[in-house]
Fold this sequence. Notes:
The chain is an all-beta fold.
Amino acid sequence: QVQLLESGGGLVQAGGSLRLSCTCSGDTSSDYNMAWFRQAPGEEREFVAVIKKRTVSTYYTDSVKGRFTISRDRDQNTVYLQMNSLKPDDTAVYYCGATPRNAILSTLWQRDAYDYWGQGTQVTVSS
């Protein structure tokens, strides 16, 4: 089992930046595919970005390409989401997900590909 704790959310003006962190604790001996999802009020939770456990390949939803960057620090058991040029449409609760299962990159946009979730961190972008 692994526990995930997100941090770094807040209120920012359009065009600003935030960096989210997701720290893993518990069974960190296993390697995990790690992803960020987000959920706006009244909407379904949607995929944002993923970083694979071995290859460290990354994949982004189209709406954040060129603005967001996912990365990981294995020594700190932490995954980051650097968010630049933020827009009001980026307002949501951001969740970190993890899975030890092997999967091809193109399937990791699906919510049910993940076994563990954090509690989320609120990101609000004002216009």
